[in-house]
Design goal:
With 167 residues, the chain is mainly beta. It has helices at residues 69-74, 97-100; strands at 4-13, 20-24, 38-39, 46-47, 49-55, 58-63, 79-83, 104-107, 112-121, 126-131, 139-142, 150-152, 157-160.
Length: 167
């Protein structure tokens, strides 16, 4: 498990005074400011985040050290991370996406189906993107209790009961 969790990303400059458009990946989007300071993925840069107002698909925000439109443009695409110990503890049946990525997926008979490459959500529910040597293409497995009855983080695996014909 990583000590850093991605909680947001800079979508670009917002205005001419150094504000950025910030996308929040938090369950309660405005709580991204509560986890400040946030760092870059490699930890080389740290930013104090101040949300100024909600905007379409995110927030206008000030990042420490970003004072001009040019500096805001330069950090476009930057993913922002919080330390795991800053984030709330999750119930046993909830997971941070980063904790699922890389887990091996087995069917209920013990056959390896593949590995979780990413977790996607297109509005209805989370989907596990599964890649594996025996798969011709990516498989999107619904991340529901019915399709994924067991997530064993200590052993690094998921037990899946996928819908008929998915694999």
């Amino acid at each position: 498990m990583s000590d850093l969790i991605c909680v947001g990303a800079v979508a670009g400059a917002f205005g001419v005074r150094g504000e950025v458009r910030l996308k929040s990946f938090c369950a309660i989007p405005e709580e991204i400011g509560d986890y400040s300071p946030l760092t870059s993925e490699d930890g080389s840069r740290s930013f104090t985040v101040t949300l100024t107002r909600p905007v379409k698909n995110g927030f206008a925000a000030l990042l420490s050290g970003v004072e001009t439109k040019e500096q805001a443009d330069a950090v476009r695409g930057l993913r922002l991370f919080a330390r795991r110990d800053q984030l709330p503890k999750l119930p046993d049946d909830e997971f941070y996406h980063t904790d699922l990525i890389g887990l091996e997926v087995y069917d209920t008979g013990g056959t390896l189906l593949g590995t979780v490459k990413s977790v996607q959500n297109h509005g209805a529910a989370d989907l596990l993107e599964i890649h594996g040597p025996g798969l011709k293409a990516t498989v999107l497995l619904p991340f529901t209790l019915e399709a994924v009855p067991t997530v064993d983080q200590t052993r690094g695996r998921i037990i899946a009961d996928p819908p008929e014909g998915l694999f």
